[in-house]
Amino acid sequence: MKGEPWRAALVVLRGVAQVMFQPNAATGLLFVAGLAVGSPLVAFGAVFGSMIGAGTALLCKFPRDDIEQGIYGFNSALVGVAPLVLLQPRPMTWLAIAIGCVLAAVVTRLCRRFAPFPTYTAPFVVVTWGLLLAIHGLAGHEIDAPAGPSPVSEGSLAGFFAEVLSGEAEVWLEASPLTGLLFLIGIALSDWRHATTAAIGSMAGTLLASYHRDPESSIALGLYGYNAALAAMAIWLARPSLVPVLLAAAISVPLTEFFPKSLGLPALTAPFVAASWIVLALIALDPYLQRRGTARP
User: Where is this site: Important for channel permeability (predicted)?
Assistant: First the structure.
């Protein structure tokens, strides 16, 4: 990528897009635009993280094709965002981001070499949890970002669709329906089926959370939609059929509800990863689910 800034920019944007399974630079650009709607600083964090992840992979001579497709950018991009949302932007926060983005790329490579199953955003989750534990151990919770105002559920059809779109936005820890809409448009530019699956997943998660009478403010934030959207997309890629897709979305909701808050750590995308693993195991064990479609590479 040296001497070719445009090519490097495409790799960085693909890394951003790969957070939602799209190796498409235009998708990544719309993701960055969506993040900038909520916070230009967070948008910068996504680009910065993907850049560090790709740069680390290049220096460590990871497979070039994977680098070009943004595989080593997406976990690092998420690590670049999470501390800026959860913590105040102090020098310690930026140092943690830089270290975490390098670690995320390395852990991604180790997982791709040795894990017998898809690891998805597990490297982001593990690295971010470690960073938060270390930062809180050094600086206490005074470094935490102040909590914003809790949104109010409107209880209308328009309010429901706003919650669904917020579910898409929460993939990147944002809660803006406009951000979520830009994300869906970005996914559709790459593959309309994936955008449809993401919307179905967020709808299913939001409806199930409402049926379970989960806190309305959490539903309005999209907290039960984003893991469902990601799980639905992940399973569609493995088994393109509605039954396992809806199953994955549904399983993600109780995992989000019962995530052990006593640990003092945010759930992040851990429920998505766990739900996807559970459904992949069920597909491997259940001949009926195996017949519900043909696996994609």
Answer: 269
